[in-house]
From TrEMBL:
Pfam families named among the record's database cross-references: SGT1
PANTHER family given in the database record: PROTEIN ECDYSONELESS HOMOLOG, SGT1 PROTEIN HSGT1 SUPPRESSOR OF GCR2
Biased composition annotated in UniProt, kind: Acidic residues: 432-458
Residue spans of biased composition, Polar residues class: 492-503
Protein's name in the database: ECD protein
One cellular component (GO) term of this entry: nucleus
Gene (name only): Ecd
Residue span of region Disordered: 432-472, 492-525
Biased composition range(s): Low complexity: 504-515
Length: 579
């Protein structure tokens, strides 16, 4: 029995699900059903991403719950998801730095107050939606395909169909060292005796095998027919599977007769042998005597089984299992050929191809949104809305945890008070917000930007600790803006922006003429920039560059419920939309 405060007796395990996320969720389904069948059990489950159950329900989690404080808080109990909250101090002032509960503490709370810790309905619904359809969904995720295989592999898969996963993984994750076993005639599965067989994959394994481009080495004995051959796909799949099985067998300890010799020649064995001698394991026997050699062989066997491969007595490698099956299974080639003559049809693999519209529909369903039609998208398409949405996103104040979208399609629209914004600019800049040009700023408060000397620098340093009045601050800001405008007026930077089209009155024209030609040229260069028009033009240009794929523009706008219409003219849509 465990001591007080320790983790109580339990059953645990680790599963390698690879790239097939459906396998992971099937395990979650099994764990949930176990706690439903045995109400006294509580179970927690996580993966390399942490509490992935919370990730699935991220849109509905309470604000206090984050990856730092979620450990030992999420459990399946009596078939339902439970979340143990933080302790509740007065006035609900959550202490986000509170330590996570221990397993005994969490189990004690679940057993006594489980009703209080039942996860909110939206959270449970999000997780249960992911689990809907099991276990029937697993049958739908299988794919049966014909493969032209060596007879030995066909016989092995009849005994252990699950070994196909290890073979696909070995081929999919192969490296140059693995392929050394495939650059010679195959020792375990030669290409001479091959038969057609129906192999069952998961869809993930089948996709990994099909999508891999691979040309076999001529020395291996495996050749492929022309791609136009009706059985080309079966030949290709069989060749890839044969390479995977051969790689597994080449790594087996049974396939390496000198493996023991290699283990007993390393520094670890030398330290082990030296330790035996220091502890008088050989009992004073002369080195090389019969008794000495007997004790030495016993030590070698113990080292190899218990030290070099401590899990060898529990876990058998796929390569060892394949070789064992080949030794204990009789291969009847004629029977395999008779079965090949009446194989059932293979499954259709059209599910490998997905259109962009189907992908959008899948993403919409994952977000519980309906996919609007093309006409609806065009009706909702408004350049002003796009510009306001992007400005709202940029203006959104975010925390150190990352940027948040100002609104979603289900939330209310962000309000933007133009008058308040204009007044705020007036207070800061002292200018009309519609024309924030250097000509509108007071020249009498200009700052002299002559070359400063050491005395000016010292004086500036002395004034750093002094309080600056608002009037001085505004004057400095205007001076900086005046100087920047003068510098930019001598460049072509302004020509890269779209400017507002405005007409000057006769009084303004006369004033400009009296100020001299330089002033008129500067005023022409410093025409107000149309911010909204430049923003929309840049967004459309970025969206056009995506060429129908995902990109920053579509991702940000769609997160705020805005969908740009399909670009029917990739060469001129951006320029036409901005005119």
């Amino acid at each position: 029995l465990p001591h007080p405060g320790e983790t109580p007796a339990h059953i645990g395990g680790t599963t390698l699900f690879g790239d097939n996320v459906e396998d992971e969720w099937f395990i979650v389904y099994l764990v949930r059903e176990i706690t439903r069948e045995f109400p006294g059990l509580a179970a927690r489950i996580d993966d390399n991403d942490g509490e992935f159950l919370l990730i699935e329900a991220a849109d509905f989690l309470p604000k206090w719950l984050n990856p730092e404080n979620s450990e030992n808080r999420v459990f399946f109990y009596k078939g339902e998801l439970h979340i143990i909250p933080l302790s509740e101090p007065p006035e609900q002032d959550w202490d986000l730095s509170a330590p996570c509960p221990t397993i005994p503490q969490a189990l004690a709370l679940l057993s006594s107050r489980s009703e209080e810790f039942l996860a909110a309905e939206p959270i449970r619904a999000a997780v249960n939606k992911r689990l809907d359809g099991y276990p029937e969904k697993m049958e739908a995720s299988l794919h049966r395909a014909r493969c032209f295989l060596p007879a030995g592999i066909a016989a092995v898969l009849r005994q252990r169909p699950s070994l196909v996963a290890a073979a696909v993984q070995a081929f999919y994750l192969r490296d140059p060292a693995d392929l050394r076993a495939c650059r010679r005639p195959f020792r375990t599965f030669p290409a001479e005796q091959r038969v057609m067989a129906l192999v069952t994959f998961t869809r993930c394994l089948y996709a990994q095998l099909v999508q891999q481009k691979f040309v076999p080495d001529r020395r291996s004995g495996y050749t492929l027919p022309s791609p136009s051959h009706p059985q080309y796909r079966a030949y290709e799949l069989g060749m890839k599977l044969a390479h995977g099985f051969e790689i597994l067998c080449s790594k087996s300890s049974k396939a390496a007769p000198d493996a023991k010799r290699n283990v007993l020649s390393g520094p670890l064995w030398e330290r082990f042998l030296r330790s035996l001698k220091e502890k008088d394991y050989f009992k004073g026997e002369m080195e090389g005597s019969a008794k000495y050699l007997e004790l030495l062989h016993m030590a070698e066997d113990h080292f190899q089984q218990s030290v070099a491969t401590p899990e060898s007595s529990v876990e058998v490698s796929p390569g060892d299992e394949i070789l064992t099956l080949l030794q204990t299974t009789s291969i009847d080639l004629k029977e395999l050929e008779r079965e090949a003559a009446c194989l059932p049809p293979e499954d259709d693999d059209s599910w490998l191809d997905i259109t962009p519209d189907a992908l959008d529909q899948m993403l919409k369903e994952a977000r519980n949104e309906s996919l609007p039609s093309t006409n609806e998208e065009q009706e909702k398409y408004d350049l002003e809305t796009v510009a306001e949405s992007m400005k709202a996103f940029v203006s959104k104040v975010s925390s150190h945890e990352g940027a948040e979208m100002p609104w979603s399609s289900d939330e209310s629209h962000v309000t933007f008070d133009v008058d308040s914004f204009t007044k705020a600019l007036d207070r800061i800049l002292g200018a009309d917000s519609e024309e924030l040009d250097s000509d509108d700023l007071d020249e009498e408060e200009e700052f002299d930007f002559s070359d400063g000397d050491d005395e000016d620098l010292d004086a500036g340093n002395q004034r750093q600790d002094q309080k600056v009045s608002p009037e001085e601050l505004v004057g400095s800001l205007k001076s900086y803006m005046n100087e920047m405008d003068r510098e930019l007026a001598q460049t072509n930077v302004g020509k890269s922006f779209t400017t507002q089209k405005r007409g000057a009155s006769s009084v303004e024209a006369a004033t400009s003429a009296s100020a001299g030609p330089d002033s008129g040229a500067e005023d022409a260069e410093l025409a107000p920039v149309d911010v909204d028009m430049n923003l929309v033009a840049n967004l459309l240009e970025s969206y056009s560059a995506q060429a129908g794929l995902a990109g920053p523009t579509s991702n940000i706008l769609q997160s705020m419920g805005l969908y740009l219409p399909e670009n029917t003219d990739l060469t001129g849509s951006s320029s036409r939309a901005t005119q």
